[in-house]
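lol so apparently i was supposed to do this last week
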Amino acid sequence: MSDRIIAPSMLSCDFGRIAEEAQAVVEAGADWIHLDVMDGCFVPNISFGAPIVEAVRRAVDVPLDVHLMIDQPERYLEDFIDAGADYLTVHVEATRHLHRCLSHIHEYGVSRGVKAGVSLNPHTPVCAFSDVLDDIDLVLFMSVNPGFGGQKFIPQVLKKIKEFRELIANRGGDAPVVMVDGGIKPHNIGDVARVGANAFVAGSVVFGSKNYAETITALRNG
Ligand code: DX5
Ligand code: ZN
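anyway here it is w/ D-xylitol-5-phosphate bound
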């Protein structure tokens, strides 16, 4: 049994059957479901909004990890918490008021203990959020430029994760979840785990496979 959190991204599923697809990956061993929300502004693609998150919420019981790739995410935090997000992640690059966003997620989601995440594009340094670490439950390191599934893993992220692990080791207290998103496959997940990531988003490799359970097991053991 591995202690990796495997979170399939629904972006690569059959959207016409999204509830069944979510159930299928949970049955196949997924720990969390990752939901990619895109607005066509922060990223050059549009995916779906809160009603789809809510539909997936009704279909499965595992934690819903909602990744907001939208400008000014503060406008929609309450909608996604109401829809059932358990982890709600905003991009550092998308808000002028990161601390306010994180506080709002915790305050509005207090009855369910909703967790707040921060995501970094490949070019954004760790120091962009190091001063608000106490307010962060999850750090999502992008290992592709966000917007699309099926892109190639950018290996420079490995150095950044290492740097982040060193930063939090010297700090004490509870460590946030360290998640990586983009281009994760059975052949590279081991390298990412070795530098300190413990949660992994995988979209195209899972939904492009014939047997979801075999692929998720390969990600756990890779
Ligand atoms: C990209 C999204 C990812 C994406 C990952 O913008 O944030 O979650 O779906 O897909 P793969 O695993 O195919 O790179
Ligand atoms: Zn994502």
